Amino acid sequence: MSYRSNTTQQNLLNQFLGEHGVKLSEDTLGKLYDYADLVVSTKEFGNLISAKDSEKFLSRHIADSLVPYVYIKGNGRWADMGAGAGCPVFPLAIAMPGVQFYAVEPRHMRVQFMQMVKGKLHLNNLTVVGKRFETSGLSDLDFISCRALSTFENDWERAQPALKKGGTFLTLKSFNNVVHLENDPAVILHKYTLPQEEQVYALVTRGNE
To answer: pTM of the prediction?
Structure first.
Protein backbone atom coordinates (compact mmCIF):
# COMPACT_ATOMS: atom_id res chain seq x y z
CA MET A 1 0.00 0.00 0.00
CA SER A 2 1.25 3.47 -0.90
CA TYR A 3 1.80 5.97 1.89
CA ARG A 4 -0.22 8.41 -0.26
CA SER A 5 -3.28 6.36 0.75
CA ASN A 6 -2.19 5.02 4.16
CA THR A 7 -4.34 7.30 6.31
CA THR A 8 -3.45 5.48 9.54
CA GLN A 9 0.24 6.27 9.13
CA GLN A 10 -0.52 9.78 7.85
CA ASN A 11 -2.65 10.50 10.92
CA LEU A 12 0.05 9.25 13.29
CA LEU A 13 2.65 11.49 11.65
CA ASN A 14 0.39 14.54 11.61
CA GLN A 15 -0.66 13.97 15.22
CA PHE A 16 3.02 13.78 16.24
CA LEU A 17 3.83 17.00 14.39
CA GLY A 18 0.74 18.71 15.78
CA GLU A 19 1.77 17.83 19.33
CA HIS A 20 5.04 19.66 18.62
CA GLY A 21 3.32 22.70 17.13
CA VAL A 22 4.16 21.89 13.50
CA LYS A 23 1.74 21.94 10.59
CA LEU A 24 3.12 21.11 7.15
CA SER A 25 1.52 22.02 3.81
CA GLU A 26 -0.20 19.37 1.71
CA ASP A 27 2.55 19.70 -0.90
CA THR A 28 5.26 19.08 1.72
CA LEU A 29 3.39 16.12 3.18
CA GLY A 30 2.89 14.68 -0.29
CA LYS A 31 6.63 14.78 -0.95
CA LEU A 32 7.28 13.07 2.41
CA TYR A 33 4.82 10.30 1.47
CA ASP A 34 6.50 9.93 -1.93
CA TYR A 35 9.92 9.70 -0.29
CA ALA A 36 8.61 7.02 2.09
CA ASP A 37 7.22 5.04 -0.86
CA LEU A 38 10.57 5.20 -2.67
CA VAL A 39 12.49 3.89 0.37
CA VAL A 40 10.02 1.08 1.03
CA SER A 41 9.36 -0.04 -2.56
CA THR A 42 12.75 0.42 -4.28
CA LYS A 43 14.65 -2.86 -4.37
CA GLU A 44 17.41 -2.44 -6.96
CA PHE A 45 19.76 -0.69 -4.51
CA GLY A 46 19.70 -3.45 -1.91
CA ASN A 47 17.59 -3.82 1.21
CA LEU A 48 17.12 -0.23 2.39
CA ILE A 49 14.80 -1.00 5.30
CA SER A 50 13.47 -3.97 7.25
CA ALA A 51 10.00 -5.34 6.50
CA LYS A 52 8.90 -4.43 10.02
CA ASP A 53 10.01 -0.81 9.67
CA SER A 54 8.52 -0.48 6.18
CA GLU A 55 5.03 -0.78 7.71
CA LYS A 56 5.54 2.24 9.99
CA PHE A 57 7.90 4.40 7.98
CA LEU A 58 5.97 7.64 8.50
CA SER A 59 5.36 7.24 12.23
CA ARG A 60 8.86 5.90 12.94
CA HIS A 61 11.42 7.24 10.48
CA ILE A 62 9.80 10.37 9.01
CA ALA A 63 8.59 11.55 12.43
CA ASP A 64 12.05 10.96 13.90
CA SER A 65 13.74 12.74 10.99
CA LEU A 66 11.59 15.84 11.49
CA VAL A 67 12.44 16.27 15.18
CA PRO A 68 15.32 18.68 14.33
CA TYR A 69 12.80 20.75 12.30
CA VAL A 70 10.67 21.09 15.45
CA TYR A 71 13.51 22.58 17.51
CA ILE A 72 15.86 24.18 14.97
CA LYS A 73 14.57 26.81 12.57
CA GLY A 74 17.91 27.54 10.98
CA ASN A 75 19.21 28.73 7.65
CA GLY A 76 22.53 28.20 5.90
CA ARG A 77 24.43 25.03 4.99
CA TRP A 78 23.62 21.70 6.65
CA ALA A 79 25.47 18.40 6.18
CA ASP A 80 24.26 14.98 7.31
CA MET A 81 26.99 12.42 8.11
CA GLY A 82 26.34 8.81 7.10
CA ALA A 83 23.07 9.62 5.37
CA GLY A 84 22.30 5.99 4.44
CA ALA A 85 18.95 5.87 2.63
CA GLY A 86 18.31 9.52 3.44
CA CYS A 87 16.95 9.88 6.99
CA PRO A 88 16.90 12.50 8.41
CA VAL A 89 18.33 14.62 5.58
CA PHE A 90 15.65 14.03 2.90
CA PRO A 91 12.66 14.77 5.16
CA LEU A 92 14.49 17.85 6.48
CA ALA A 93 15.31 19.04 2.94
CA ILE A 94 11.64 18.61 1.99
CA ALA A 95 10.45 20.55 5.05
CA MET A 96 13.14 23.27 4.85
CA PRO A 97 13.54 24.29 1.18
CA GLY A 98 15.48 27.43 2.14
CA VAL A 99 18.38 25.44 3.62
CA GLN A 100 21.20 23.93 1.51
CA PHE A 101 21.64 20.28 2.53
CA TYR A 102 24.45 17.82 1.86
CA ALA A 103 23.76 14.09 2.22
CA VAL A 104 27.19 12.55 2.86
CA GLU A 105 27.41 8.76 2.47
CA PRO A 106 30.32 6.55 1.30
CA ARG A 107 28.33 3.44 0.29
CA HIS A 108 27.86 3.40 -3.48
CA MET A 109 24.39 1.77 -3.58
CA ARG A 110 23.02 4.21 -1.02
CA VAL A 111 24.48 7.13 -2.96
CA GLN A 112 22.85 5.88 -6.18
CA PHE A 113 19.51 5.54 -4.40
CA MET A 114 19.67 9.06 -2.98
CA GLN A 115 20.63 10.52 -6.37
CA MET A 116 17.57 8.83 -7.89
CA VAL A 117 15.27 10.15 -5.14
CA LYS A 118 16.69 13.68 -5.37
CA GLY A 119 15.84 13.70 -9.08
CA LYS A 120 12.34 12.27 -8.67
CA LEU A 121 11.43 14.71 -5.89
CA HIS A 122 13.18 17.73 -7.54
CA LEU A 123 15.11 18.57 -4.38
CA ASN A 124 17.28 21.38 -5.70
CA ASN A 125 18.39 22.29 -2.16
CA LEU A 126 20.09 18.91 -1.60
CA THR A 127 23.46 17.64 -2.84
CA VAL A 128 24.45 13.98 -2.50
CA VAL A 129 28.15 13.55 -1.64
CA GLY A 130 29.48 10.01 -2.18
CA LYS A 131 32.39 10.13 0.26
CA ARG A 132 33.29 9.66 3.89
CA PHE A 133 32.52 12.84 5.80
CA GLU A 134 36.20 13.45 6.63
CA THR A 135 37.15 13.47 2.93
CA SER A 136 34.00 15.26 1.66
CA GLY A 137 35.73 18.65 1.50
CA LEU A 138 32.81 20.27 3.33
CA SER A 139 33.71 22.98 5.85
CA ASP A 140 32.38 26.14 7.48
CA LEU A 141 28.97 24.47 7.92
CA ASP A 142 26.12 25.97 9.93
CA PHE A 143 24.71 22.57 10.92
CA ILE A 144 25.97 18.99 10.94
CA SER A 145 23.62 16.14 11.82
CA CYS A 146 23.64 12.38 12.11
CA ARG A 147 21.19 9.74 13.22
CA ALA A 148 22.22 6.80 15.42
CA LEU A 149 25.70 6.70 13.88
CA SER A 150 28.17 6.15 16.73
CA THR A 151 28.51 7.51 20.25
CA PHE A 152 27.79 11.19 20.76
CA GLU A 153 31.45 11.81 21.56
CA ASN A 154 32.71 10.10 18.38
CA ASP A 155 30.15 11.85 16.20
CA TRP A 156 31.00 15.26 17.71
CA GLU A 157 34.71 14.65 17.17
CA ARG A 158 34.11 13.92 13.48
CA ALA A 159 31.77 16.85 12.95
CA GLN A 160 33.41 19.64 14.92
CA PRO A 161 36.30 20.49 12.52
CA ALA A 162 33.84 21.16 9.68
CA LEU A 163 31.49 23.37 11.73
CA LYS A 164 31.77 27.13 11.53
CA LYS A 165 32.20 29.08 14.75
CA GLY A 166 28.73 29.38 16.23
CA GLY A 167 27.52 26.39 14.19
CA THR A 168 25.47 23.54 15.67
CA PHE A 169 26.00 19.78 15.77
CA LEU A 170 22.89 17.69 16.32
CA THR A 171 22.21 14.00 16.56
CA LEU A 172 19.23 11.71 17.16
CA LYS A 173 19.87 8.95 19.70
CA SER A 174 18.15 6.56 22.04
CA PHE A 175 17.95 8.46 25.35
CA ASN A 176 19.61 5.54 27.16
CA ASN A 177 22.73 6.13 25.05
CA VAL A 178 23.04 9.80 26.01
CA VAL A 179 21.68 9.91 29.57
CA HIS A 180 25.24 10.58 30.79
CA LEU A 181 25.13 13.94 28.99
CA GLU A 182 22.21 15.31 31.03
CA ASN A 183 24.48 17.38 33.26
CA ASP A 184 26.94 18.44 30.54
CA PRO A 185 26.66 22.25 30.25
CA ALA A 186 27.86 22.18 26.62
CA VAL A 187 24.99 19.94 25.51
CA ILE A 188 21.22 20.44 25.16
CA LEU A 189 18.93 17.38 25.29
CA HIS A 190 15.36 17.34 23.97
CA LYS A 191 13.62 14.11 24.99
CA TYR A 192 10.73 12.74 22.92
CA THR A 193 8.78 9.59 22.10
CA LEU A 194 7.54 8.43 18.70
CA PRO A 195 3.98 7.33 17.91
CA GLN A 196 3.09 3.89 19.33
CA GLU A 197 6.61 3.38 20.71
CA GLU A 198 7.62 3.13 24.34
CA GLN A 199 11.30 3.90 23.90
CA VAL A 200 12.49 7.42 24.78
CA TYR A 201 14.70 9.21 22.28
CA ALA A 202 16.69 12.43 22.43
CA LEU A 203 17.73 15.18 20.07
CA VAL A 204 21.16 16.19 21.29
CA THR A 205 22.69 19.50 20.22
CA ARG A 206 26.05 21.10 20.88
CA GLY A 207 27.22 24.48 19.65
CA ASN A 208 30.71 25.07 18.28
CA GLU A 209 32.07 27.87 20.49
So the answer is: 0.96
